[in-house]
Design a protein that fits this description.
The structure is a single chain. The protein is an alpha+beta fold. The protein folds into two domains: 3-81, 434 Repressor (Amino-terminal Domain); 92-195, Sandwich (Jelly Rolls), CATH 2.60.120. The chain contains five helices and 13 strands. The chain has helices spanning 11-30, 35-42, 46-53, 61-71, 75-78, and strands at 3-4, 57-58, 82-83, 97-100, 106-113, 118-126, 131-134, 142-149, 151-156, 159-164, 168-172, 177-180, 187-195. Pfam families: Cupin_2 (PF07883), HTH_3 (PF01381). GO terms for molecular function: DNA binding; DNA-binding transcription factor activity. InterPro entries: Cro/C1-type_HTH (IPR001387), Cupin_2 (IPR013096), Lambda_DNA-bd_dom_sf (IPR010982), RmlC-like_jellyroll (IPR014710), RmlC_Cupin_sf (IPR011051), TransReg_Diox_bact_type (IPR050807).
Length: 198
């Protein structure tokens, strides 16, 4: 049985799922962390962890964030775009798509540092009517956003903000938040996430 948590169907998704599966097993082994302990720390069910490690699940970005935080890592560690040497080059074919919207939108994790104090660089594309919701990141997490095309509506807690093309924003995202395209054109934005380890 394959558990679908995110909307993805292509070969890139399979490659990402294989990398996530292998990396979580590796890091859990290195940290001598049982499935029960990881489940308790992350709030992710043991059954879901078994499915992820068995490469039978397609975990959402929010779920990967919870697992990374619980393990003192970054999502970039899981998908192998975390820079460890002085310089790490990441080819276009190595950049994973970690979310696909129902209308063709996408979220690509371009690069990131290794956790627990991590910084990630994302590129998002939202088509009209698409929304991505996040339950919130660990306390103190901040995001820097720059809209290259279209208009992005950012909701943090119960307040919404409109960010037009060419404009930027800084947001504390340790509360529930969402990125929405309520306009008529494509919204393209770059986002940097900064999260301090526990």
């Amino acid at each position: 049985m394959t558990i679908k948590v995110n909307i993805t169907t292509d070969a890139d998704a399979a490659r990402v799922n294989e990398a996530v599966s292998a990396r979580i097993k590796l890091y859990r082994s290195q940290k001598k962390m049982s499935l029960d302990e990881l489940s308790r720390l992350s709030g992710v069910s043991k059954g879901m962890l078994v499915e992820i490690e068995g490469c039978r699940a397609n975990p959402s970005i929010a779920l990967l964030c919870r697992l990374a935080s619980a393990m003192g890592l970054s999502v970039a560690d899981f998908v192998n775009v975390a820079g460890k040497p002085a310089v790490q080059l990441i080819g276009a074919g190595e950049i994973p798509v970690l979310w696909k919207g129902e209308k063709g939108g996408s979220a690509r994790l371009l690069a990131g540092t290794s956790g627990p104090d991590m910084v990630e660089l994302w590129q998002w594309r939202l088509y009209p009517g698409e929304t991505f919701e996040s339950p919130g990141h660990p306390e103190g997490t901040s995001e820097l956003l720059h809209v290259a095309e279209g208009t992005l509506t950012l909701a943090v807690s119960e307040t919404t903000f409109v960010i037009n093309a060419g404009c930027a924003a800084v947001a504390r995202t340790d509360a529930p938040h969402a990125y929405m395209n309520i306009g008529t054109g494509v919204a393209v934005f770059t986002m940097t996430v900064s999260e301090k380890g526990r």
